[in-house]
Amino acid sequence: MRRLWLLFAQTVTICLGILFIVATLRPDWLHTPQPAPATPPAPEQGAPFSFAAAVAQARPAVVNVYTSKHVNVPVIPIPADPELERLFRDIPGFSRRKESTNLGSGVIVREDGYILTNYHVIEAADAIEVALSDGRQTRAAVVGADPESDLAVLKIDLPDLRAIAFNGSHEVRTGDVVLAIGNPFGVGQTTTMGIVSALGRNRLGINIYENFIQTDAAINPGNSGGALIDTSGRLIGINTAIYSESGGSLGIGFAIPAGAAQTIMEQIIKTGTVTRGWLGIEPQDITPDLARAFGLKQHDGVIIASVLRNGPAWQAGLRVGDIVLALNGEPVRDAIGFLNQIAPLPPSEKAKLRVVREGRRMELEVRVGTRPPIPKR
Predict the structure, then answer these.
(1) Rounded Cα gap, residues 18 and 330, in angstroms
(2) 3-state secondary structure of 245
(3) CATH assignment of 277-370, among 3.30.70.20, 2.30.42.10, 3.40.1000.70, 1.10.10.10
């Protein structure tokens, strides 16, 4: 037994010695080779940070719009004064007719050839030419226009047209990535990228009814009437205006929301005009000074500055100095918002106003009228 134990001890000692020598001189022999890490699959072409698919879906529906009109240009420069212009307008030889051209963009919204664009793009045009992304060109006819929202609808007659998809119920949020497609400076169809900077912008003095999407996607002259799309290629707005001191993009652009544009477009196609609700009042924001003067504790709502005699509001009993807090149960925040709440109301239907008069709350029912058209200047 002792001989076996000595033999075992010697064997273990020899093995430990060999292990020590190997670990010192060739440690790599003791490590099991690890399999090489698998090479990650190459990302698919255009993913994940490309918007090529969205642009490919939307760009065939975006067109270039070229307009021309004849204007009278004075032979001798005169100050920009309407009275002087009227005085000299009829003098023979004072002015000569000159052709003026303008450029913009538009969006094919129906496959039967209807196009949405801005009213200021085609205003007073003698001829309108539309160029498609596939190179085709054709004349366009004006179906109707709505200067109060700066929208117009054109019609072209060509086969195989691609219409853009509206965003429908998809909510637009501040911070969403958006793409602007148009024809800036006439260089040809161009796509720029940015985000939704803000929603509900108004008081800009651009239109009567303002509820703009603000974006920092580069929008320049010629982009007007073009498409503002989301990353799925859906239309979320019609590019309309920029804030600029130089004429170029400063990262502040404005677009009419697609839902509002679609509603106006459908009315124009159906009737040739846009019908808006009207109460015959002039609302005014409640400023801190007015709130103190009327002893109000809240600044929400609007104060009625004037009421058209025998208009809808007058007949319902609304008077100057009344404060409107709600329309059909919806809170009234300010004068611009109040006008936007009135506009979609169907004429001849009744609307309920929650009013404060001399500190007493009351409910008034008014039959909505039709907003009269703005007289042409």
Answers:
(1) 90
(2) coil
(3) 2.30.42.10
Report the relative pairing of strands 151-155 and 114-118 from DSSP bridges: antiparallel
Round to whole Å and give the CA distance between 142 and 144.
6
Specify the pTM. 0.72
Q: Cα–Cα distance between 156 and 278 in angstroms, integer?
A: 33
For domain 55-155, which CATH number applies: 1.10.10.10, 2.40.10.10, 3.40.50.1820, 3.30.930.10? 2.40.10.10
What's the gap between Cα 345 and its chain centre?
Answer: 22
CATH class of 177-271: mainly beta
H helix or E strand, kind and range, residue 194: strand 190-201
pLDDT band, residue 375 (cuts 50/70/90): low
132-141, 155-164, 205-214: least confident range: 205-214
Beta carbons of 230 and 57 less than 8 angstroms apart: no
Give the separation between CA 238 and CA 223, rounded to whole angstroms: 9
Residue range(s) occupied by CATH 2.40.10.10 in the chain: 55-155, 177-271
Active-site positions?
Answer: 120, 150, 224
pLDDT tens figures, 303-317: 998 999 999 999 999
Q: What's the start-to-end Cα distance of the chain, in Å?
A: 125
